[in-house]
């Protein structure tokens, strides 16, 4: 479950897949166990708390709140850069279900190209800091040369306590989130940034 550990060859994996999975499950008060036998395979067992359901009244309130939130974000286009396919799929699905329109990028260079192609539509960029070809910091610096007012969320397994990251966080349009990230926090952060851009 340790971050940065991967059995893939250098440059082919970030080592965050299982770490992110573990973080999401623990945040939901669940458990995950692994059984592995050389030459036979690996089994993962995931246990999550039983959903007890809600009363019709509380369910209606949740539905109305969710509908209101989705109305606020519907049509907002987010560029999401993550080279780990499994992590990219999970987070993209979560953001899409929240009403955002997601453009996926597999590395920093791909993200910069897609930003230029959709420059008038993208309201926020979300990127892992450790991506092939161009880091998240390099991507951010390349993007603000094109649009200095772009909203940007950097996610990383590394600490934000660095001189460069401290400097970047002085920008009101920049946010840093530590991995493993909580999906609800990412959604809230994006909504806050994009709502500010609407003011």
TrEMBL record:
SUPFAM superfamilies in the cross-refs: ATPase domain of HSP90 chaperone/DNA topoisomerase II/histidine kinase (SSF55874), CheY-like (SSF52172)
Bilayer-crossing regions: none
Catalytic activity: ATP + protein L-histidine = ADP + protein N-phospho-L-histidine
Modification sites for 4-aspartylphosphate: 128
Coiled coil start-end: none
GO MF terms held by the record: phosphorelay sensor kinase activity
Pfam families: HATPase_c (PF02518), Response_reg (PF00072)
Domain Response regulatory positions: 77-194
Keywords per UniProt: Phosphoprotein
InterPro entries (alphabetical): CheY-like_superfamily, HATPase_C_sf, HATPase_dom, His_kinase_dom, Sig_transdc_His_kin-like_C, Sig_transdc_resp-reg_receiver
Enzyme Commission code(s) on record: 2.7.13.3
Start and end residues of each Histidine kinase domain: 1-52
Protein name: histidine kinase
Organism of origin: Flexistipes sinusarabici
């Amino acid at each position: 479950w340790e971050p940065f550990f991967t059995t893939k060859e250098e440059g082919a994996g970030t080592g965050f897949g299982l770490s992110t999975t573990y973080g999401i499950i623990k945040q939901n008060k669940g458990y995950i166990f692994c059984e592995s036998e050389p030459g036979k395979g690996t089994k993962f067992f995931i246990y999550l708390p039983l959903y007890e359901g809600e009363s019709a009244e509380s369910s209606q309130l949740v539905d109305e709140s969710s509908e209101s939130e989705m109305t606020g974000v519907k049509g907002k286009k987010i560029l999401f850069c993550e080279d780990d396919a499994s992590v990219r799929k999970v987070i993209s699905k979560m953001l899409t279900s929240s009403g955002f329109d997601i453009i996926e990028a597999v590395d920093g260079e791909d993200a910069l190209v897609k930003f230029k192609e959709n420059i008038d539509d993208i309201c926020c960029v979300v990127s892992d800091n450790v991506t092939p070809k161009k880091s998240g910091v390099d991507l951010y610096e390349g993007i603000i040369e094109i649009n200095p007012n772009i909203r940007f969320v950097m996610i990383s397994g590394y600490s934000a306590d660095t001189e460069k990251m401290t400097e970047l966080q002085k920008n009101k349009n920049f946010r840093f989130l530590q991995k493993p990230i909580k999906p609800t926090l990412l959604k809230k952060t994006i909504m806050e940034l994009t709502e500010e851009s609407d003011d």
